[in-house]
Design brief:
Number of helices: 21
Order of helices and strands: HHHHHHHHHHHHHHHHHHHHH
Distance between the termini: 34 Å
Strand content: under 5%
Helix content: over 70%
Number of domains: 2
CATH topology of the largest domain: Growth Hormone, Chain: A
CATH class of the largest domain: Mainly Alpha
Structural class: mainly alpha
Largest sheet: none
Length: 502
């Protein structure tokens, strides 16, 4: 299988992180979706206390993502990954053996802190150690996360009638093994420069990066639409089929298509201009995935096989569009995040993006949930699907606007050195002609000199030696030492080249 072959091509440390992501998602989705039922029926807690425990986990996770990212920058991602896995082991053990509110609350808080440390640190490690294969690395990370979440939900639903504490002990055992493996396999990294600026200065730099903030805001629709795999689509599948296990069919389908097509799609996009130019197209496909369900969302709960199968096939079509759009957009979005700032702040940018993503998921799910309630009360069953379509198309429009106005990293107007040199040569020639006229030289003399220069010029101008985020030294390329200020798109390309390197 292509996914396994591509995994073996990466260093051992990255392969372990892929497996780690797989195991962590299995443990999370094995435990968390069924935690509320255990607290209410197993421990006899009230609905208010159940909400307190679950809210504590969400608050500690979303609020501390930026701290986890900063820790990865300052302590190194290796140490933070190991600490996050160890904390998750402790949290699952407390869930297994704690039967009082303080212990369960502590377990919930530790689980959130562990996630806040683990996710930015893993992405930071992948971004720093994957060389020039960032897109493939994040694509594989997405595959392992998707398959792990599906298997976790599958195992949880099968074992739901057994003792919840068995889940927790199993999750703690898996995290223990992963913690030890990472401590043994992940190579130690160079010590971090202690003379760097303060954490608050790093945060000010990230919060002051206008392009990054615009990008984070533009992708909020993508985060909201992705989360409907766990909210709107399961509700639609239940209504279309009348079977409580129909949501599992959609999740299994997502895991299967991710394993089969994610890496193929990522490599195809790299061959056709890079994933950056296709992000908005992927977001459009994600939004359009909510159009087919509009055909079957009306009516009552399905009650017959002849009725449920066609309706379920329509839901499957919409889910496939959502999954394929995600496979186009998501890896490139993750790849771009660290490119907005300095390499030393990779973790900070990932952490801040996850904070925005968490807020977007909560706010977007609230809006979709309200639309679902309103649709049920008023008979407008199509309302939440239209809302999700709007989220997807709005996000696609925003990202496309950023792409066209050259506010995304790596996006420049002049994509080839000969094209850039040709434009600069033309501008320089016009300036020479104007200077010659001011000096009283005859027009035909200027024309002869320009023709002579053109005839003696090499057929293929030398390529610029500068890489991404670099400029050629004076005299080495065709860029003049003191060119006239360019206007319009050419000025934007010059400004992009002056951005600090990663």
């Amino acid at each position: 299988m292509m996914t396994l072959r591509a995994t073996r091509e990466f260093p051992l440390a990255l392969r372990l992180l892929f497996i780690n992501q797989f195991g962590v998602d299995i443990g999370f989705y094995l435990l968390m979706p069924f935690l509320a039922a255990y607290l209410e029926h197993g421990l006899g807690m009230s609905a208010a206390l159940v909400g307190l425990v679950l809210g504590a986990r969400t608050l500690s996770q979303q609020g501390l993502f930026i701290l986890g990212g900063s820790a990865a920058d300052r302590l190194g991602p290796r140490m933070v990954i190991i600490a996050g896995c160890a904390l998750r082991t402790v949290a699952f053990a407390l869930f297994a053996f704690g039967n009082s509110l303080p212990l369960v609350l502590a377990a919930s808080l530790l689980s959130g802190v562990a996630a806040a440390m683990f996710y930015p640190a893993v992405r930071t490690y992948v971004a720093l150690e994957s060389g020039d294969r960032h897109a493939e690395a994040f694509a594989l990370l997405n595959v392992y996360a998707t398959v792990g979440s599906f298997l976790g939900l599958l195992l949880g639903s099968v074992l739901f009638m057994t003792d919840f504490r068995i889940f927790a002990v199993s999750g703690a055992a898996v995290c223990t093994v992963l913690t030890v493996a990472q401590a043994m396999v992940l190579p130690r990294q160079a010590p971090v420069d202690t003379a760097r600026s303060s954490v608050f200065a790093d945060w000010r730099e990230a919060f002051g990066n206008g392009r990054f903030l615009l990008f984070s805001f533009a992708t909020t629709g993508m985060i909201t639409v992705e989360n409907q795999v766990y909210l709107l689509l399961p509700a639609g599948a239940l209504k279309a089929s009348g079977w409580t296990g129909s949501a599992g069919v959609l999740l299994a389908l997502g895991a299967l298509v991710n394993m089969l097509f994610q890496l193929r799609i990522t490599r195809m996009l790299e061959r056709h201009g890079g994933g950056l130019r296709w992000v908005s197209a992927g977001l459009v496909v994600m939004g359009l995935g909510f159009v087919p369900p509009l055909l079957v969302c009306e009516g009552t709960l399905s009650r017959g096989l002849a009725d449920s199968v066609p309706r379920m096939l329509v839901l499957v079509l919409g889910s496939l569009m959502l999954y394929f759009g995600t496979m186009v957009a998501h890896p490139t979005v993750m790849e771009m995040i660290p490119r907005f700032g300095r390499e030393a702040l990779t973790g900070t940018y990932f952490g801040l993006f996850y904070v925005f993503s968490g807020l977007a998921a909560m706010g977007g799910n609230f809006v979709v949930g309200r639309a679902m309630d309103l649709g049920e009360r008023t008979g407008l069953a199509w309302l939440p699907w239209i809302v999700c379509l709007g989220f997807g198309l709005a996000s696609a429009t925003a990202v496309s606007l950023l792409y066209r106005t050259f506010r995304l990293p790596g996006r420049t107007l002049l994509t080839s050195a000969p094209a850039a040199e040709a434009e600069i040569e033309g501008i320089t020639a016009v300036r020479r002609m104007a200077m010659s006229r001011r000096n009283g030289s005859p027009r035909h003399a200027v024309a002869r000199r320009m023709r002579a220069e053109h005839a003696s010029a090499p057929l293929h101008p030398p390529s610029s030696p500068a890489g991404r985020g670099q400029t050629a030294p004076a005299g080495e390329g065709s860029r003049p030492q003191n060119p006239a200020p360019l206007s319009g798109p050419a000025r934007a390309a010059g400004d992009a080249a002056d951005q600090p390197p990663r």
